[in-house]
Structures are given as C-alpha cells and as structure tokens.
Write a structure and sequence with these properties.
Helix content: under 10%
Largest sheet: 6 strands, antiparallel
Radius of gyration: 13 Å
Number of strands: 9
Distance between the termini: 27 Å
Order of helices and strands: HEEEEEEEEE
Strand order of the largest sheet: 3-4-8-7-6-5
C-alpha cells in the first residue's frame, strides 16, 4: 500500500524526527471516540480510550495497539523514541514511571504524526 503524501512540516517531524511545538497540534485537546492512526501509512496506533490529559500539550496515551509502536533508543541517549512499527515514521517518545495513569506509561506523540478515524456505530 502506498504511503500518504506528506507536506514539508509532516516530513520534518515524521521522517526527520522533529517535534512540533506543544499546545499547537490538532489532537492534544481532542476528545472524540475512535482510533488514532499513522499519518504516513494509516496503521492503527492508539485507541482513543488510552488517551489522557498529561498537561504537556501533546497527545498522551498510556497504551498502544499491540505491536503497532516500536520503541528505540533516542539519539540523545536519554529518552526512548517511538515509531510506527509498520512504516518507521517518528511518533514521539515514551516515558515510564511518571504515574499519570495506573499504567504509568506516557506515549507523548506529535499530533502531526497522527490522523484520526472516528468510531462508527
């Protein structure tokens, strides 16, 4: 399946591991039922019921679709990068042990790396 065409800002984040400014992305304060999917390849990544408000200004999820997100050591040597397991597109970082939710995991994701499929009845 061909990948979606990306604009320059999407390429900067998804392909070149950039970061969007906090509180600017379209999904940081989004509260609809459905599935967050990869902007580049449409793979399902995060169910909306795993999303929570971390106060950081980026979409935060305490769980992902099993096998959909791959964790890699970040180039900075301190953080853990998360990428789409299907296409390798940069999503953001995962932080563990912060205690925001009972799972104590925060997938901190760039909105620009995501699209959203609303739940259909």
């Amino acid at each position: 399946m061909p990948y979606n065409e990306l604009n320059d800002e999407e390429k900067r984040v998804i392909l070149h591991k950039g970061t969007e400014r906090s509180f600017t992305g379209k999904y940081w304060d989004h509260h609809e039922d459905g599935m967050y999917i990869c902007r580049q390849c449409n793979a399902e990544l995060f169910p909306s019921d795993a999303k929570f408000d971390s106060g950081t200004g980026w979409p935060s999820f305490d769980d992902a679709v099993p096998g959909a997100v791959k964790e890699l050591p970040d180039a900075d040597g301190r953080r853990i990068e998360i990428v789409c397991a299907n296409c390798g597109g940069h999503l953001g970082h995962v932080f563990k042990g912060e205690g925001f939710t009972s799972k104590s995991t925060r997938h901190c994701v760039n909105s620009i790396s995501l699209d959203f499929k609303p739940k259909t009845s």
